[in-house]
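Predict structure. Input: Aquaporin Z, 236 residues.
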Amino acid sequence: MKNYAAEFFGTFWLVFGGCGSAIFAAGIPELGIGYAGVALAFGLTVLTMAYAVGHISGGHFNPAVSFGLFAGGRFDGKQLIPYIISQVLGAIAAAGVLYLISSGNSDFAIDNTKAGAFASNGYGAFSPHGYSMLSAFLIEFVLTAFFLIVILGATDKFANGKFAGIAIGLALTLIHLISIPITNTSVNPARSTSQAIFVGGEPLTQLWLFWVAPIAGAIVGGLIYKLLLQKDESQA
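Output follows.
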């Protein structure tokens, strides 16, 4: 059970730190952290939890990562459902705490007619800068595929595993620097689900894309690494 607990708390930290930075600190005039700060916050959550609990559960914190590691031959398929449940519950718990904290401000209200409400993801009118559904699908697919390539490469037995958490955290930072304007960045179905549940409305109906595109991209990334990039013993 410790691996499931590690996934719960790791995903909690990712949503609490990443989405929390977007909700509380991104939009403050002059002193706010902006897109770059939010991108860094997401990267730091994964980096810190990779070293804190990665040795317990593998440090997925993301259903798409679990699927990608399975496709890449690094994860037992029997663990997929329990891992995903742990991740989604951790994300929802974090969103719930963020909601309670936000409610302490008398001006707090979630306007689910606006893009990015409560750090939600979206496309079309709910994209931060009006990008289409196709654009959203492509960016989430491509970035998650490359995220899996980075994860599989950085954690390969031929790589220097001591630096894997840094590489993975910086990759997630880069992913957010690219795609926050397009979808508010998901590449993580658990993170998207937690925010959409509290926002409701159109962001909730668009949630399907933020499951399908990241998982499809992760599977492709996992297969690319396994079939095209991974060295075997004869190449060592």
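The radius of gyration is 17 Å.
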